[in-house]
Design a protein that fits this description.
single chain; alpha/beta; Rossmann fold; 2 domains; 6-stranded mixed β-sheet; two-stranded antiparallel sheet; Hydrolase; HAD-like_sf; hydrolase; hydrolase activity
Length: 243
Amino acid sequence: MTVKGALFDFSGTLFRVESAESWLRAALERSGAAVPEEEVVRYARDLEDAGALPGGATPLAVPPHLTEVWGARDRSAELHRAAFTGLARQVPLPRPELYDALYDRHREPAAWRPYPDAHEVLGALRRRGVRVGVVSNIGWDVRPVFRAHGLDPLVDAYALSYEHGVQKPDPRLFRVACDALGVDPGDAVMVGDDRRADGGAAALGCRVHLVDHLPVDQRPDALRAVLGLLPDGAPASQGVFRK
């Protein structure tokens, strides 16, 4: 296989969102709400259990009234906000405006950190002439995050689910990315952290490489295995598969 295009997921692959506690503290500070320390810790734990932090832990349970919107959350900005603020509202917070403040906080570049090897790997791909795309199930524009962290110049195209009304694993979103890059899916690799969602690229003939969705300090170099798929790279990782 000749790799001419590399597609990357956003959350859990190139970037990781901050912790639930850091996320909550930022929203509290912005709102001016004074909350005792022990309550901050408790609220953060309850919000994490509820799955209210996009890019964080999955919900322990989705309330019945949110089941439909949760399943389609990445198809539009409105559905995405409704799904995650709806989950957050399962946790009684001291001020009603905090639910929107939390959602707005997670969209800020400061809420995200790139994995340590992200810049290195994207830069190496560019130098080797491989086109790079970002394919994400998301309800907002991640481009400012990439710009703030210096990665946007290394990305050739973005295929964001909410902009196309279709979410992974639907092959149509991967097709959008491949077309934008001008590469055949059979010459592309999809790199992501979700076997079901990112594995949808295999239906088009893309190779799929999976990485673990871990905190940034626990995953220093997993993306480097992608370079092993190129002719002058290191041996390919065992995390690569085709459907």
